[in-house]
Design brief:
heterodimer; A: alpha/beta; eight-stranded parallel beta sheet; five-stranded antiparallel beta sheet; 10 helices; B: mainly beta; seven-stranded antiparallel beta sheet; six-stranded antiparallel beta sheet; 29 strands; globular
């Protein structure tokens, strides 16, 4: 399955800088060939050989699952693109500023042909440092895009003061503590931070936690600006006391009224016969509110790590690899969504431990 | 069920391999010439006398194909619709002004043609007049009705029936979801679509009664009517699915016949033009000939590395062509 073509989804509210990032990716000397799927009505030119205009046709699956929506145009376009096998190394999908990322992500799980030939590498969201906070208040799409992201660029960071920047970061963390966060100017960022993330492969859930509040800053040196980054990387994020979700000590912390994440972890092996019925029932009932979930699971009498991910009601899981010797067999899950019944989820997860 | 059918009668040794340099996405017969549609740029024609010819038809991906006995019509991501005959002569049918992808093509009675780009369906009448119709969303499939000049257009939320030569408004058939393949029964009474979900939808056209045909494991991509029109053979399951259309209600309230089970899905089906036999191509590269009456099987191709993407019979039923996703192709002489 490793020859599946990776797909990066670029989201971000109107004017945040998606197309700037896209053109930056394409113009860089990386030796990779991309197929780019853009919104047909885009104004700015895209400098690439293979650009396909999409029309963002979202439709509901007729399977009794109201939140199960799919981008029909993507199914069609990827079907067509894959006939060019060997002509490109990766696909980038740019969505419109008002797009909900869920149908895009769900397309990769729902259509078996798309899923067999491509894999979602990461959802990358470009946020406008100056305007994001306002948009989080008045545009549900903007909040969805943040909640959904694996990688977030706080762009136009040069246009705000350091304390404003810190505030935006804190707002983002209140919604999505798990994404990789970068501050950028004109989307200047090493491409490796955006492409080939394997974010949907979930490894980072375990890796990211110790540093999840660390923000990487990308700025051009020697351009005359004096970057005064208020919060450096050394001011003591303390993760030793079980503060999994909102752990930082030095940063301001916002709790988003509506959108939260629930982080679960247990060292007790899980019983698959308890876990799967529980999680399936949970996403059936809470699916419309669950934007994303991810998990790395250790089952009883199972020497393989099981990885699970989901969008709304759709779950997709598989054995990933053997647990390494000496690796701690910890089961970990994250749910990001609206008005999640945290206590109930936590209790349910705990009850899945093997007796 | 992981057997490879090693113990059943075989016609494998009658295969003539055909050299193709790209994945095969479709195959049709023009008389006794097999026309293999490659995923990019070209067709490969194999004449009865064994002559192979590569014909360039598109400047990119070939997205769609349809054929009658005389010509194969293809649509490409170069925005062109091209017809090719058995000699390899090509005719440009149309070129989209905005160079949009030609997602679908269809051929109809008396040389009628249809194609689509985005939400627009185009038809060319047997006399050569061209018309277009916009439907609510991207066209998922096109199928002519067997008689007259009438086109079924599948899209999101249902299908549209269009009489291009009549003044009447096109008829809308509603069914929620995305309809991605379409076929009309031989008697013209039923329109069947395959949906994004692993299910078929059908309409009895006389009273627009809905039919749901469910139980599939994967999206149905291949639909074929048996020679007598009494069965609709489909892919989409780990066995050959045959829906009965003998009765006036079609398959309503009936269960399908299930034949030739395997441990991998059926990806493509093709019905013999005169007998009750279906060529069945599987995801593991296996091709079986399956008799509808009793489920008897004949091995036509051993499993390979990649799915069978297309099978087709010549009009006399003596030749069977197949192609695969890993650029393998052949014609089996059963005559």
């Amino acid at each position: 399955m490793s020859d599946r073509i990776p797909v990066t989804v670029l989201t971000g509210y109107l004017g945040a800088g998606k197309t700037t990032l896209l053109n930056r990716i394409l113009s860089e000397q990386h030796g990779q060939k991309f197929a780019v799927i853009v919104n047909e009505f885009g104004e700015i030119g895209i400098d690439n050989d293979l650009v396909v205009g999409a029309d963002e046709e979202v439709f509901e699956m007729n399977n009794g699952c109201i939140c199960c929506t799919v981008r029909g145009d993507l199914v069609r376009i990827i079907d067509g693109l894959m006939r060019r096998k060997g002509k490109f190394d990766a696909i980038i999908v740019e969505t419109t500023g008002l797009a909900d990322p869920a149908p895009v992500a769900q397309t990769f799980f729902v259509d078996e042909n798309v899923g067999r030939k491509t894999k979602l590498d990461a959802v990358v969201t470009v946020a406008d440092a100056k305007w994001l906070k306002d948009r989080l208040k008045d545009a549900p799409e903007a909040k969805n895009q943040i909640a959904f992201a694996d990688v977030i660029l706080i762009n136009k960071a040069d246009l705000v003061k350091p304390d404003e920047l810190a505030d935006v970061e804190a707002h983002i963390r209140g919604i999505n503590p798990y994404a990789r966060l970068h501050t950028t100017e004109r989307c200047r960022i090493p491409l490796l931070e955006v492409l080939g993330r394997n974010a949907f492969d979930l490894d980072r859930i375990l890796d990211i936690e110790p540093e999840f509040l660390a923000v990487e800053h990308h700025h051009e040196h020697g351009d005359g600006h004096d970057h005064d980054h208020q919060h450096d990387h050394g001011h003591g994020h303390d993760h030793g006391h079980g503060h999994h979700v909102h752990g930082g000590s030095g940063l301001k912390h916002y709790h988003d009224e509506e959108m939260q994440s629930v982080s679960l972890s247990t060292e007790r092996p899980l019983d698959p016969d308890k876990f799967f019925p529980w999680v399936q029932d949970l996403v059936q009932k809470e699916g419309p509110n669950i934007l994303r979930c991810k998990g790395i699971l250790a089952f009883k009498d199972d020497d393989q790590r099981f990885v699970l991910q989901g969008v709304h009601m759709i779950l997709d899981g598989d054995h990933q690899r053997e647990w390494k010797s000496g690796e701690q067999r910890v089961s970990r899950m994250v749910f990001i969504g609206r008005n999640l019944p945290q206590g109930k989820i936590r209790e349910g997860f705990e009850s899945c431990a093997a007796s | 069920m992981s057997d490879t059918r090693g113990d059943i009668p075989s016609v494998v040794e009658r295969t003539r391999p055909v050299t193709v340099d790209a994945p095969v996405v479709d195959v049709r017969f023009l008389g006794d010439t097999a026309a293999f549609v490659l995923g990019e740029e070209a067709l490969v024609l194999l004449a009865r006398n064994g002559e192979e010819r590569r014909v360039a038809v598109h400047a990119g991906v070939v997205l769609s194909a349809a054929a009658d006995d005389e010509r194969i019509v293809t649509g490409g991501d170069d925005g062109k619709v091209v017809a090719t005959d058995a000699s390899g002569a090509t005719t440009a049918i149309a070129a989209d002004a905005k160079r949009r992808w030609i997602d679908q093509v269809a051929v109809g009675p008396n040389g009628a043609l249809a194609w689509s780009a985005g939400k627009t369906a185009f038809v060319r009448s047997p006399k050569g007049g061209e018309q277009s119709l916009d439907v609510p969303s991207t066209v998922g499939a096109l199928a002519f009705l067997p008689k007259g000049f009438r086109l079924a257009i599948a899209h999101y939320g249902g299908a549209t029936l269009w009489f291009p030569s009549a003044q009447a408004e096109p008829e809308r058939l509603e069914w929620k979801g995305s309809h991605l393949a379409a076929t009309v029964s031989r008697d013209g009474r039923f329109l069947i679509t395959a949906m994004q979900e692993p299910t078929l939808h059908g309409w009895r056209l006389i009273d627009r009664k809905d039919m749901r045909m469910q139980g599939y494991t994967t999206r149905v991509r291949s639909l074929a009517w048996s020679a007598d029109g009494k069965w609709l053979a489909t892919s989409g399951s780990t066995q050959l699915i045959l829906w009965p259309f003998h009765a006036k209600d079609g398959p309503m309230g009936k269960t399908p016949q299930l034949l030739a089970p395997m441990d991998v899905p059926v990806d493509t089906v093709g019905c013999h033009p005169t007998q009750g036999v279906v060529a069945v191509g599987y995801a593991n590269g296996l091709v079986l000939l399956v008799r509808i009456d009793d489920g008897a099987e004949i091995l036509a191709r051993k499993p390979g590395e990649a799915p069978v993407t297309a099978v087709a019979w010549s009009a006399d039923g003596k030749l069977l062509a197949f192609g695969t996703e890993d650029a393998k192709a052949g014609v089996i002489d059963l005559g």
